[in-house]
Amino acid sequence: MVEISVIIPTYNIEKHIQKCLDSVINQSFKDLEIICIDDKSTDNTLNILNEYALKDPRITVYPKDENKGIGDSRNISLTLAKGKYIFFLDSDDYIVPDALEKAYNISEEKSLDILMFKMIHFYEDSEDYFKIRYTEMRYLKKIVQDKVFNYKDVEEYLFYLCVNLQCKLFRRDLICDIRFPNEKIFEDTPFFIEAMLNAKRVYFLQEHLTYKCERRRSLSHTHDYKNADIIYMADHVSDVLKRNDIFDELKTSYLQFRIKHITYYYRYTKFRYKSKFYVRMRRDFIDNKQEYDKAYDDLYKIYQIIYDSCIKTENDKIFMLRSFCQFLMHFPRLIIDFIREYLKWS
Q1: Pair (62, 202) in one structural domain
Q2: pLDDT of 126 higher than 90
Q3: Would the pLDDT of 117 be above 90?
Q4: How many angstroms separate the Cα of 169 from the Cα of each of 83, 87, 219, 253?
Q5: Within this chain, do residues 258 and 208 fall inside the same structural domain, yes or no?
Q6: Has residue 156 got a pLDDT over 70?
Q7: 29 in Cβ contact with 83 (< 8 Å)
Q8: Are 99 and 240 part of one and the same domain?
Q9: Of 220, 245, 268, which residue is a domain's last?
Q10: What CATH number does the domain containing 186 carry?
Q11: Domain interval for residue 285
Q12: SS in 3 state form for 158-227?
């Protein structure tokens, strides 16, 4: 059995895949298998993968018969992986030369189920490197310091944690039965939440081991109607919580997470798609009205306003106007909630 299985899903990534693969095969840690699942690429990606596989026997290439998305590719990889640990790497990202050695040694030393670490970000069309608050998770360091923890130690912050998989090392036994949603974006979130709920030993390493490429035209940066798939993601998270008999315990923080993320992607969706998105958003609030009403008094005021305005308003433009007026009326309360929210992230 190899020690680490590196899973790299690929699709039309000929521009970046060589740098990604070079960063893995040249790791100081050598006991690896590298599983590349190609999602029916139409460019030269598959040829590049096959060339690398001829040079390095640790690389195995699995070309798919049809394009089904990154979630499907990762699910296939999980059935093939033999390593003690699993590392997911996106095909346009790369890792520092000793990333897997550090991650492996700490995971072994502390008997971890999940190791979390940090990422440096960069745009593919720029040489500027930068950090973002979401993946820095400064608040987590304050909470857990240098200790091993589990979700109960960070319960209030569970839905604030960075879900990106390329800054995690997972024990395979923990995640071998978890699956990604197929053919949807935002697939990392329900997978990570379920892994966190099952993990007994988690550690946060205060080092940057991954470089994450931010492609301006990637799915996560394309503000079209696909953004409405955030609702599917929220449904999957709800299913995870209920399946683990923890929904009632985390209901308030989960529903605030749900409102926040759905309205965030609604706000940044291009104007011509907003009305269509709004119909789905409003339907979602109506369908889950019973759960929202039970937790209503515990929600931050801003989420109460968004929920009330959406439930009462069929037209998206009137919804925006109603919400704005309510924000003005409750401005002092919103400031207090904003400070509470900011302090969680700081």
Answers
A1: yes
A2: no
A3: yes
A4: 11, 5, 24, 26
A5: no
A6: yes
A7: no
A8: no
A9: 220
A10: 3.90.550.10
A11: 225-345
A12: HHHCCCCHHHEEEEHHHHCCCCCCCCCCCCHHHHHHHHHHHCCCEEEEEEEEEEEEECCCCHHHCCCHHH
Round to whole Å and give the CA distance between 171 and 2: 13
Taking the CA atoms of 155, 159, 164 and 165 in sequence, report the sign of the dihedral they define: positive
Name the residue type at position 281: M
Q: Which two tokens stand for residue 110?
A: 């502390």
User: Do 39 and 169 lie in a common domain?
Assistant: yes
Whether residues 203 and 232 share a domain: the answer is no
| Residue 344 amino acid letter | K
Q: What is the pLDDT of residues 205-257, one digit of tens each?
A: 999 999 999 876 554 445 678 888 999 999 999 999 999 999 999 999 999 99
* Count of domains forming the chain: 2
Query: Quick check: helix, strand or coil at residue 62?
Result: strand
pTM of the model: 0.92
Residues 236 and 194 in one domain: no
CA distance linking residue 73 with residue 95, whole number of Å: 21
How far is Cα 280 from Cα 256, in angstroms, rounded to an integer?
Answer: 18
pLDDT at 219: 45
* Residue where a domain terminates, one of 220, 243, 271: 220
Q: How many other β-carbons are positioned within 10 Å of the β-carbon of residue 120?
A: 15
Q: How is residue 23 written in tokens?
A: 């960063």
- Location of structure tokens 């968004």: 306
Q: Are residues 143 and 216 in the same domain?
A: yes
Are the C-beta atoms of residues 148 and 116 closer than 8 Å to each other?
no
Query: What residues have CB less than 8 Å from 300, skipping those under 6 apart?
Result: 256, 337, 340, 341
Going by C-alpha positions, the residue among 4, 7, 316 that lies closest to residue 166 is 7
Nearest to 169 by CA among 111, 88, 83, 79: 88
Q: Give, in degrees to the nearest 5, the angle at Cα 169 between 166 and 171.
A: 140
